[in-house]
Amino acid sequence: MKFRKIAALAAAASLAFGVAGCSKDSEPGSSEAESQSGQTVRVWFMEGSISDEAQQYLVDEFAKANPGNELKVEVQQWDGIVSKLQTSLASKNESPDLVEIGNTQTTSFTTVGAFADVTDLRETLGGDDLIQSFVDASTVDGKIYAYPLYAGARGVYYRKDLFEQAGIDVPKTITEFKDAAIALQQANPEGVEDFSGLYFAAVDAHGVESFLFPAGFEYAKKEGDKWVAQVTTPESMKALEMAQDLFANGTHFGLDSQASQKSFERYFNEGQVGILIGTGNIGVKIDQKLWDEDKVGIFAIPSEEPGVPGASFAGGSNIAMATNSQNPELAKRALEVIFSEGFQKLIAKDGWVPGNTKLGSDVAGAFGEIAADVVAHSKLTPNTPQWGVAVGDNAVNDFYTHIAKGEDLQKTAQEFNEQLDTLLNQK
Fold this sequence. Notes:
This protein has about 425 residues and is an alpha+beta fold. The chain is about 40% helix and about 20% strand.
């Protein structure tokens, strides 16, 4: 069958999926999967998502359940993944069988036919225990095309000893959080050169969003059939002013490179930064000595209402089966292993909130204590295929870079607002 095409233009670049493929001649049942031998199921996981231990568990358990067949994990880089997926998923010969896909990109690929309908697996893979917002984002016309692999909602890691030395209390509101980061940088209790109160970088869009959302920022809202940008509303502008204050006075990492951001926890480990906004898996990357010496604390990003967690960005990934999968029935068997209790607990051990929320309490370390609250209050970017265009074209990172550079905030916000109005309403 021919897949539908979508072309959405942003600035001078475009995102166009020309995915063409054929459906299988028949819908094989489990008996066909059981008779297959000598086949390889290819799974694409993203760099930094799934630990080596979890990957090996998947490989081993799949082999046990499917004698004579193997599962191969191929780790992909986030940089350039959209264009690579466009090319690979369109090929009947080169397409992987299963693909990890960021939740902000899922809708873009789902709506053009790149993923197979896997609605029939819902109950087998977890049913009502699956992260519902992720399932919703993967549902088109009542059919499910991907399932939640893990959620990466963000909390705050901070140096308890530095807060104490600087006389700073744990903030109860998002405004107090901003002020605490700036005060900590000014205090610089240990006299570290170029010390930053907070790691806050334009290239870490989801980290910035996890500050902005609790402060009242919105990208856009759906009004009828149209998306209306909200970047210049009074609430959003107030949040952006706070963010610009942080870039100017609460961090030295506003213009950090994308490569350096990938391991930003090292700045915390080396004492160059006192506060991190990070996902649960960051906790397992923080130097164990800091934990052992009780120098690390964690709390949910606050809202403006004391005691109520703020709406941090609900990052994370889904897992989907490619329409051009060479071994769809074996791929479904692999999905069953991925959503088994053993694999889901390994995801939790890595610090992620697993796709099956029933196992959320297994999240490793201190983050497990706040994981449920954080996920419950988290939010996503606008749920539209066109959002992937904004991210793919670096429009969001460019917007935050202008703010980090201290450029005129009203002008920058107005230009981005107009860009989103155009971009999100492309057909």
